Amino acid sequence: MTITQEAHDTLQRRAIRLEWATTGWNLMEVFVTIGLGVAAGSLALVAFGLSSMIEVFASSVVIWHLREGRDPAPRRTRLAFKLIATAFFALALFLSVTSVRSLILGLHPGESPLGIAYLALTATVMFTLARIKRRTARAMDSGPLEAEASMTFLDGCLCIGILSALGVNILFGWWWADAMAALGIGVFAGREGFGALQDSRRKD
């Protein structure tokens, strides 16, 4: 469905505001979750904080792409997809390496009630942002925005995974669940990266 220029401009402004909101929240996450992770000895919490920097990069790419206007050059769109794919691959590699290292060394996370509360809040925020982004992306036919919405959704999934891991560690002493949660999200991030890469090739 074709939309008017005015409607597109309204959606574009909304999309940029959503990306700035995501960026602001993720910058806060870097400091909050790394601090909580170090205090609790939780690899997954620390990894979550560091992975937030990758989402900040992806959001920056989408803002750059959206500012081109209604009909960005195909070359710009291909580059945006490739940069987002790179962000997914970086996240996948980081989570996979740190998770495997934790499992090999047998690192046991401590309890973090504050971390659990913060992750529950962050999951709600990320799922909400992802839903609105995806709806906005489809309305304005923005592939890069929709791809980045998947990363925001992945951020929410990572919250739930780590939240569950911290919970079962407290209840049952399953120390390995912390690393396995991060590893599972890393695999999913890799798959999303390949999807974004395929989207870039469709623009050739």
Question: What keywords describe this structure?
Answer:
mainly alpha, Alpha-lytic protease prodomain-like, 6 helices
Summarize it:
This protein has helices at 5-40, 43-66, 74-105, 113-140, 143-172, 176-202.
Structure explained in plain terms:
The structure is a single chain. This protein is mainly alpha-helical. The chain has one domain: Alpha-lytic protease prodomain-like, CATH 1.20.1510.10. Helix content is about 85%, strand content about 0%. It contains six helices and no strands. The two termini are about 25 Å apart. The relative contact order is 0.17.
Q: Looking at this structure, what is the CATH superfamily?
A: Cation efflux protein transmembrane domain
Main beta sheet: none
Output the number of helix runs: 6
CATH class: Mainly Alpha
| Average pLDDT figure | 82
Class per helix and strand makeup: mainly alpha
Number of domains: 1
Number of strands: 0
Low-confidence stretches: none
User: What is the helix content?
Assistant: over 70%
Distance between the termini: 23 Å
Q: Please state roughly what percent of the residues sit in beta strands, choosing from under 5%, 5-15%, 15-25%, 25-35%, 35-45% or over 45%.
A: under 5%
Question: Helices and strands in order, then pairings?
Answer:
Blueprint: H1 5-40, H2 43-66, H3 74-105, H4 113-140, H5 143-172, H6 176-202
Helix pairs in contact: 1-2, 1-4, 2-3, 2-5, 2-6, 3-5, 3-6, 4-5, 5-6
